Amino acid sequence: MDAKRIAAERAVDYIQDGMIVGLGTGSTAYWAIQKLGLKVQGGLQIKAIATSVQSEELARNLGIPLVSFAEMNEIDMTIDGADEVDQELNLIKGGGGALLREKIVAAASKQFIVIVDESKLVKRLGTFPLPVEIVPFGHEVTIKKLYDLGYEPRLRKIDNETFVTDNGNYIVDGHFGDIEAPQELHNKLNLIPGVVDNGLFVNMTRRVVVGYQDGEISELEK
Ligand SMILES: O=C(CO)[C@H](O)[C@H](O)COP(=O)(O)O
């Protein structure tokens, strides 16, 4: 079985009746939502809030009841993927462009479980290009300010069209080299006018479920 799927399905075992569940975005979260859908069809009583339009549609098609922040303000458990996980369980996320909603949902969650395959584990964050969500207005000057920070920002494009997030914003991707102080960098980036948020998730998760090619699973805890 796919290593991402193994991790995702293991994490879903933590979901219990009555919970409000945050649904992640991406190819690993896809498997968690699928498994959750099967459990709901089998009688599990939960309500969910999604981190993207894509995950919301998937959940709806599977019959998972959805809620919004207008109806509650705390999530019991969120399960989401990541692009990189370091030894402190800090993350880079946003490869799928959903980092802002993912961070809002993770920050509103009592527990935030991250699901990855082994390829996402790194000693230090920074090989994966860090996504930064920026507003379209003045994006040229925002990108210049990012460049001045030592970042080599590239406006994300899909099929030659500028990628637009579910929030109507743009994403830039770029390298900072090895990210030695993720919290510091996170704060610096978010202070730039025009930056909405960035893909660094520092000190947000205490549990990472890792799936391996050979079918093994491990859980990293903090
Ligand atoms: O942050 C994300 C989307 O914004 C994803 O969780 C991240 O990109 C990992 O994706 P995948 O599970 O497809 O490898």
Automatic annotation (TrEMBL):
Binding site for substrate: T25, G26, S27, T28, D80, G81, A82, D83, K93, G94, G95, G96, K120
Pathway the protein acts in: Carbohydrate degradation; pentose phosphate pathway; D-ribose 5-phosphate from D-ribulose 5-phosphate (non-oxidative stage): step 1/1
UniProt-annotated catalytic positions: E102 (proton acceptor)
EC numbers for this chain: 5.3.1.6
Record's GO cellular component terms: cytosol
Superkingdom in the source lineage: Bacteria
Record keywords: Isomerase
SUPFAM superfamilies: D-ribose-5-phosphate isomerase (RpiA), lid domain, NagB/RpiA/CoA transferase-like
InterPro entries with a match to the protein in the record: NagB/RpiA_transferase-like (IPR037171), Ribose5P_isomerase_typA_subgr (IPR020672), Ribose5P_isomerase_type_A (IPR004788)
GO MF annotations in UniProt: ribose-5-phosphate isomerase activity
Catalyzed reactions: aldehydo-D-ribose 5-phosphate = D-ribulose 5-phosphate
One Gene Ontology biological process: pentose-phosphate shunt, non-oxidative branch
Function: Catalyzes the reversible conversion of ribose-5-phosphate to ribulose 5-phosphate.
Assembly behavior: Homodimer.
Protein family (similarity comment): Belongs to the ribose 5-phosphate isomerase family.
Name recorded for this polypeptide: Ribose-5-phosphate isomerase A
Source lineage: Bacteria, Bacillati, Bacillota, Bacilli, Bacillales
Gene transcribed to yield this protein: rpiA
